[in-house]
Amino acid sequence: MHSVVFKNDAVGDLVHSLKAISNIVNSSAKVTIFLSKISENFSFLLHNSKVEIKILNYNLSFFEKIKIIFYLKKMNVKNVYILSPKNFYYYLPYFFKKIKFFAICVNNANNYRRPRPMLRKLLFKYEINDREKIFKRDSTRTIQDRLTFAHNSKSSFSLNINVNKSKELEVRLPKKYIYFHFKKKIFNQLGWGLNDITILFNEFVHYGNNVVFTKDIETDKYNFLFKENFNSYDFTSKKFIDNKKKILFFDNIVGKDLFNVIKYSHKIVAFHGMMTNLGFLLNKPVLDLFHCNMSSWDAYRRYRNSFYEFKPKYNGYDFIIPKKNINKTINKIQFSLRKCLKE
Question: Among the three residues 148, 180, 203, which one is the final residue of a domain in this structure?
Protein backbone atom coordinates (compact mmCIF):
# COMPACT_ATOMS: atom_id res chain seq x y z
CA MET A 1 0.00 0.00 0.00
CA HIS A 2 1.40 3.35 -1.08
CA SER A 3 0.63 6.31 1.20
CA VAL A 4 1.36 10.01 0.67
CA VAL A 5 1.92 12.50 3.48
CA PHE A 6 1.69 16.26 2.99
CA LYS A 7 3.82 17.91 5.68
CA ASN A 8 5.35 20.98 4.03
CA ASP A 9 5.58 23.34 6.99
CA ALA A 10 8.05 24.43 9.70
CA VAL A 11 10.50 22.18 11.56
CA GLY A 12 8.70 22.61 14.89
CA ASP A 13 5.45 21.47 13.27
CA LEU A 14 7.26 18.52 11.72
CA VAL A 15 8.45 17.38 15.17
CA HIS A 16 4.86 17.20 16.42
CA SER A 17 3.89 15.11 13.37
CA LEU A 18 6.66 12.51 13.73
CA LYS A 19 4.57 10.13 15.84
CA ALA A 20 1.78 10.28 13.24
CA ILE A 21 4.27 9.74 10.40
CA SER A 22 5.63 6.73 12.30
CA ASN A 23 2.09 5.32 12.46
CA ILE A 24 1.71 5.80 8.69
CA VAL A 25 5.07 4.16 7.87
CA ASN A 26 4.25 1.20 10.10
CA SER A 27 0.97 0.54 8.28
CA SER A 28 2.19 1.12 4.68
CA ALA A 29 4.43 -0.67 2.20
CA LYS A 30 5.72 2.63 0.78
CA VAL A 31 5.38 6.23 1.99
CA THR A 32 6.10 9.42 0.06
CA ILE A 33 6.48 12.41 2.36
CA PHE A 34 6.29 15.95 0.98
CA LEU A 35 8.34 18.25 3.23
CA SER A 36 8.98 21.97 2.93
CA LYS A 37 12.31 23.51 1.97
CA ILE A 38 12.33 24.88 5.54
CA SER A 39 12.47 21.39 7.05
CA GLU A 40 14.48 19.70 4.25
CA ASN A 41 17.66 19.73 6.36
CA PHE A 42 15.92 17.55 8.95
CA SER A 43 14.67 14.91 6.50
CA PHE A 44 17.40 12.60 7.87
CA LEU A 45 15.08 11.95 10.83
CA LEU A 46 12.80 10.02 8.47
CA HIS A 47 15.46 7.94 6.74
CA ASN A 48 13.96 4.52 6.07
CA SER A 49 13.90 2.06 3.17
CA LYS A 50 10.13 2.49 2.85
CA VAL A 51 10.25 6.31 2.84
CA GLU A 52 10.73 8.64 -0.13
CA ILE A 53 11.17 12.36 0.54
CA LYS A 54 10.02 15.07 -1.86
CA ILE A 55 10.44 18.81 -1.29
CA LEU A 56 7.91 21.60 -1.81
CA ASN A 57 7.77 25.27 -0.94
CA TYR A 58 6.07 26.19 2.32
CA ASN A 59 3.51 28.09 0.22
CA LEU A 60 2.71 26.01 -2.84
CA SER A 61 3.30 27.53 -6.26
CA PHE A 62 0.83 26.97 -9.12
CA PHE A 63 3.39 24.67 -10.78
CA GLU A 64 3.76 22.61 -7.59
CA LYS A 65 -0.01 22.16 -7.34
CA ILE A 66 -0.08 20.80 -10.89
CA LYS A 67 2.83 18.46 -10.09
CA ILE A 68 0.95 17.08 -7.08
CA ILE A 69 -2.15 16.37 -9.19
CA PHE A 70 -0.09 14.55 -11.85
CA TYR A 71 1.79 12.61 -9.17
CA LEU A 72 -1.43 11.31 -7.62
CA LYS A 73 -2.77 10.41 -11.07
CA LYS A 74 0.40 8.57 -12.07
CA MET A 75 1.17 6.68 -8.87
CA ASN A 76 -0.93 3.90 -7.35
CA VAL A 77 -1.68 5.80 -4.14
CA LYS A 78 -4.16 4.29 -1.69
CA ASN A 79 -4.08 6.78 1.22
CA VAL A 80 -3.28 10.47 1.47
CA TYR A 81 -2.63 12.15 4.84
CA ILE A 82 -3.08 15.92 5.04
CA LEU A 83 -1.03 16.87 8.09
CA SER A 84 -0.38 20.43 6.88
CA PRO A 85 -3.84 22.04 6.74
CA LYS A 86 -3.36 24.01 3.51
CA ASN A 87 -6.51 24.82 1.56
CA PHE A 88 -5.39 23.30 -1.76
CA TYR A 89 -5.08 19.80 -0.31
CA TYR A 90 -8.73 19.67 0.73
CA TYR A 91 -9.89 19.96 -2.90
CA LEU A 92 -7.96 16.86 -3.97
CA PRO A 93 -10.60 14.32 -2.77
CA TYR A 94 -13.04 15.83 -5.27
CA PHE A 95 -10.79 14.67 -8.15
CA PHE A 96 -9.49 11.40 -6.68
CA LYS A 97 -12.48 9.38 -5.59
CA LYS A 98 -10.57 6.09 -5.22
CA ILE A 99 -8.02 7.49 -2.75
CA LYS A 100 -8.78 7.61 0.96
CA PHE A 101 -7.99 11.05 2.39
CA PHE A 102 -7.16 11.50 6.09
CA ALA A 103 -6.89 15.10 7.26
CA ILE A 104 -6.40 17.55 10.09
CA CYS A 105 -9.12 20.19 9.88
CA VAL A 106 -9.18 23.54 11.65
CA ASN A 107 -11.97 25.38 13.47
CA ASN A 108 -11.31 28.94 14.59
CA ALA A 109 -13.05 32.04 15.93
CA ASN A 110 -15.85 33.76 14.01
CA ASN A 111 -17.06 30.41 12.67
CA TYR A 112 -13.94 29.94 10.54
CA ARG A 113 -13.70 26.44 9.07
CA ARG A 114 -10.84 24.94 7.08
CA PRO A 115 -11.97 23.24 4.96
CA ARG A 116 -15.63 24.09 4.65
CA PRO A 117 -18.13 21.43 5.84
CA MET A 118 -18.93 20.49 2.24
CA LEU A 119 -15.30 19.49 1.60
CA ARG A 120 -15.04 17.66 4.92
CA LYS A 121 -17.69 15.25 3.68
CA LEU A 122 -15.28 14.08 0.97
CA LEU A 123 -12.66 13.02 3.53
CA PHE A 124 -12.43 9.37 4.58
CA LYS A 125 -11.46 10.41 8.14
CA TYR A 126 -10.60 13.67 9.83
CA GLU A 127 -9.77 15.16 13.20
CA ILE A 128 -10.43 18.76 14.21
CA ASN A 129 -7.89 21.12 15.71
CA ASP A 130 -10.42 23.31 17.51
CA ARG A 131 -8.78 26.71 17.91
CA GLU A 132 -12.21 28.21 18.45
CA LYS A 133 -12.00 27.04 22.07
CA ILE A 134 -9.32 28.43 24.37
CA PHE A 135 -9.68 26.00 27.25
CA LYS A 136 -7.34 23.05 27.74
CA ARG A 137 -7.57 20.52 24.92
CA ASP A 138 -5.56 17.87 23.09
CA SER A 139 -2.21 18.81 21.60
CA THR A 140 -1.71 18.72 17.84
CA ARG A 141 0.57 15.69 18.37
CA THR A 142 -2.26 13.78 20.08
CA ILE A 143 -4.77 14.78 17.40
CA GLN A 144 -2.49 13.57 14.59
CA ASP A 145 -1.71 10.35 16.43
CA ARG A 146 -5.44 9.68 16.73
CA LEU A 147 -5.95 10.37 13.01
CA THR A 148 -3.22 7.96 11.86
CA PHE A 149 -3.21 5.17 14.44
CA ALA A 150 -3.75 1.75 12.86
CA HIS A 151 -4.54 -1.33 14.95
CA ASN A 152 -3.08 -3.65 12.30
CA SER A 153 0.36 -2.04 12.39
CA LYS A 154 3.07 -4.73 12.72
CA SER A 155 6.49 -3.15 12.13
CA SER A 156 8.21 -0.59 14.30
CA PHE A 157 9.55 2.52 12.56
CA SER A 158 12.03 4.50 14.66
CA LEU A 159 13.40 7.96 14.02
CA ASN A 160 16.97 8.37 12.89
CA ILE A 161 18.28 10.46 15.80
CA ASN A 162 21.71 8.82 16.10
CA VAL A 163 23.66 10.91 13.61
CA ASN A 164 27.42 11.25 13.93
CA LYS A 165 29.01 14.52 15.01
CA SER A 166 30.87 16.38 12.32
CA LYS A 167 34.61 17.03 12.73
CA GLU A 168 33.80 20.68 13.46
CA LEU A 169 31.59 19.75 16.41
CA GLU A 170 34.05 17.19 17.69
CA VAL A 171 36.62 19.98 17.94
CA ARG A 172 34.50 22.97 18.99
CA LEU A 173 31.69 21.62 21.17
CA PRO A 174 32.29 21.93 24.96
CA LYS A 175 31.65 18.92 27.19
CA LYS A 176 29.02 20.68 29.29
CA TYR A 177 26.97 23.63 28.06
CA ILE A 178 23.59 25.32 28.05
CA TYR A 179 22.21 25.83 24.56
CA PHE A 180 20.35 29.03 23.58
CA HIS A 181 18.80 30.23 20.32
CA PHE A 182 18.62 33.95 19.58
CA LYS A 183 15.48 35.34 17.88
CA LYS A 184 15.89 38.95 16.83
CA LYS A 185 12.15 39.63 16.48
CA ILE A 186 11.39 38.59 20.06
CA PHE A 187 14.45 40.40 21.43
CA ASN A 188 13.19 43.57 19.75
CA GLN A 189 9.70 43.09 21.20
CA LEU A 190 11.17 42.65 24.68
CA GLY A 191 13.54 45.59 24.20
CA TRP A 192 16.58 43.40 24.92
CA GLY A 193 19.98 44.31 23.47
CA LEU A 194 23.56 43.06 23.59
CA ASN A 195 23.94 44.06 27.25
CA ASP A 196 20.86 42.02 28.19
CA ILE A 197 21.99 38.93 26.33
CA THR A 198 25.42 39.20 27.96
CA ILE A 199 23.79 39.35 31.41
CA LEU A 200 21.68 36.31 30.49
CA PHE A 201 24.66 34.30 29.26
CA ASN A 202 26.78 35.16 32.29
CA GLU A 203 23.97 33.73 34.42
CA PHE A 204 23.91 30.55 32.33
CA VAL A 205 27.66 30.02 32.82
CA HIS A 206 27.09 29.61 36.58
CA TYR A 207 24.98 26.53 35.89
CA GLY A 208 26.33 25.01 32.68
CA ASN A 209 30.07 25.88 32.60
CA ASN A 210 29.70 27.04 28.99
CA VAL A 211 27.08 28.53 26.68
CA VAL A 212 26.60 27.59 23.03
CA PHE A 213 24.14 29.68 21.05
CA THR A 214 22.82 30.09 17.52
CA LYS A 215 20.63 32.55 15.63
CA ASP A 216 18.38 32.51 12.60
CA ILE A 217 20.28 32.22 9.32
CA GLU A 218 19.76 35.75 7.95
CA THR A 219 22.77 38.04 8.33
CA ASP A 220 22.28 41.23 10.37
CA LYS A 221 24.17 43.41 12.83
CA TYR A 222 24.02 40.71 15.51
CA ASN A 223 26.26 38.37 13.52
CA PHE A 224 29.04 40.93 13.82
CA LEU A 225 28.26 41.90 17.42
CA PHE A 226 28.32 38.28 18.54
CA LYS A 227 31.64 37.65 16.79
CA GLU A 228 33.15 40.73 18.43
CA ASN A 229 32.00 39.87 21.95
CA PHE A 230 32.02 36.06 22.19
CA ASN A 231 33.90 33.12 20.78
CA SER A 232 32.51 32.13 17.39
CA TYR A 233 32.74 29.52 14.67
CA ASP A 234 31.27 30.03 11.18
CA PHE A 235 30.21 26.74 9.54
CA THR A 236 30.33 28.37 6.10
CA SER A 237 33.72 30.06 6.20
CA LYS A 238 35.18 27.52 8.70
CA LYS A 239 36.62 30.48 10.62
CA PHE A 240 37.04 30.36 14.41
CA ILE A 241 37.40 33.53 16.49
CA ASP A 242 38.76 33.08 20.00
CA ASN A 243 37.82 35.93 22.35
CA LYS A 244 38.71 33.90 25.45
CA LYS A 245 35.08 33.45 26.49
CA LYS A 246 33.00 30.57 27.80
CA ILE A 247 30.28 31.65 25.38
CA LEU A 248 30.42 30.24 21.84
CA PHE A 249 28.37 31.48 18.88
CA PHE A 250 27.79 29.02 16.02
CA ASP A 251 27.04 30.93 12.82
CA ASN A 252 25.43 29.43 9.69
CA ILE A 253 24.76 26.09 11.38
CA VAL A 254 22.01 23.87 9.93
CA GLY A 255 20.68 20.32 9.75
CA LYS A 256 22.62 17.54 11.47
CA ASP A 257 25.11 19.91 13.09
CA LEU A 258 22.32 21.99 14.65
CA PHE A 259 20.51 18.81 15.69
CA ASN A 260 23.62 17.50 17.45
CA VAL A 261 24.27 20.80 19.24
CA ILE A 262 20.80 20.41 20.75
CA LYS A 263 21.26 16.67 21.36
CA TYR A 264 24.50 17.00 23.33
CA SER A 265 23.52 20.07 25.35
CA HIS A 266 23.11 19.88 29.11
CA LYS A 267 20.02 22.07 28.95
CA ILE A 268 18.10 24.01 26.30
CA VAL A 269 16.87 27.54 26.97
CA ALA A 270 15.03 29.03 24.00
CA PHE A 271 11.97 30.92 22.89
CA HIS A 272 9.13 28.59 22.03
CA GLY A 273 9.51 27.07 18.58
CA MET A 274 11.79 24.84 16.58
CA MET A 275 14.56 24.48 19.19
CA THR A 276 12.27 23.68 22.14
CA ASN A 277 10.40 21.18 19.95
CA LEU A 278 13.63 19.44 18.94
CA GLY A 279 14.56 19.36 22.63
CA PHE A 280 11.23 17.68 23.34
CA LEU A 281 11.92 15.14 20.58
CA LEU A 282 15.24 14.29 22.23
CA ASN A 283 13.73 14.31 25.73
CA LYS A 284 16.24 16.99 26.81
CA PRO A 285 15.78 19.34 29.79
CA VAL A 286 14.10 22.40 28.27
CA LEU A 287 13.27 25.85 29.59
CA ASP A 288 10.75 27.28 27.14
CA LEU A 289 10.56 31.10 27.02
CA PHE A 290 6.91 31.35 25.98
CA HIS A 291 6.72 34.98 24.81
CA CYS A 292 3.47 36.56 23.68
CA ASN A 293 2.62 40.18 22.99
CA MET A 294 -0.74 40.44 24.81
CA SER A 295 -1.91 43.50 22.87
CA SER A 296 -5.46 42.31 22.15
CA TRP A 297 -7.99 39.56 22.76
CA ASP A 298 -7.03 37.93 19.44
CA ALA A 299 -3.36 37.95 20.48
CA TYR A 300 -4.29 36.32 23.79
CA ARG A 301 -6.36 33.69 21.94
CA ARG A 302 -3.43 32.89 19.63
CA TYR A 303 -1.12 32.58 22.63
CA ARG A 304 -3.46 30.18 24.43
CA ASN A 305 -3.97 28.12 21.28
CA SER A 306 -0.24 27.83 20.70
CA PHE A 307 0.25 26.87 24.33
CA TYR A 308 -2.24 24.02 24.22
CA GLU A 309 -1.32 22.83 20.72
CA PHE A 310 2.44 22.64 21.17
CA LYS A 311 3.28 22.52 24.89
CA PRO A 312 5.21 19.27 25.53
CA LYS A 313 4.40 17.06 28.51
CA TYR A 314 7.36 15.43 30.25
CA ASN A 315 9.34 15.88 33.47
CA GLY A 316 12.24 17.76 31.88
CA TYR A 317 10.10 20.55 30.47
CA ASP A 318 9.73 23.97 32.19
CA PHE A 319 8.35 27.20 30.83
CA ILE A 320 8.10 30.86 31.80
CA ILE A 321 6.75 34.03 30.24
CA PRO A 322 9.80 36.34 29.93
CA LYS A 323 9.72 39.93 31.19
CA LYS A 324 11.10 43.01 29.48
CA ASN A 325 13.29 43.56 32.54
CA ILE A 326 16.12 41.07 32.04
CA ASN A 327 16.82 40.79 35.79
CA LYS A 328 13.19 39.86 36.49
CA THR A 329 13.43 37.24 33.77
CA ILE A 330 16.59 35.82 35.33
CA ASN A 331 14.83 35.61 38.69
CA LYS A 332 12.07 33.61 37.00
CA ILE A 333 14.40 31.16 35.25
CA GLN A 334 16.69 30.35 38.17
CA PHE A 335 14.40 27.59 39.47
CA SER A 336 14.92 25.72 36.20
CA LEU A 337 18.63 26.48 35.89
CA ARG A 338 19.28 25.07 39.38
CA LYS A 339 18.28 21.66 38.05
CA CYS A 340 21.50 21.71 35.99
CA LEU A 341 23.49 21.49 39.20
CA LYS A 342 21.72 18.28 40.20
CA GLU A 343 22.29 16.49 36.90
Answer: 148
Phi then psi for residue 54, to 5 deg, are: -125, 150
Tell me the C-alpha distance between 343 and 328, whole Å. Answer: 25
At 270, is the secondary structure helix, strand, or coil? strand
φ, ψ for residue 299, nearest 5 deg: -65, -40
Are 285 and 199 found together in one domain? Answer: yes
Provide the number of structural domains found in the chain. 2
Q: Which domain holds residue 275?
A: 167-342
pTM: 0.89
- DSSP class per residue in 64-105: HHHHHHHHHHHS-EEEEEE-S--GGGGGHHHH-TTSEEEEEE
Answer yes or no: do 59 and 107 share one domain.
Answer: yes
pLDDT in tens, 55-94: 999 999 999 999 999 999 999 999 999 999 999 999 999 9
In terms of domains, do 219 and 143 share one? Answer: no
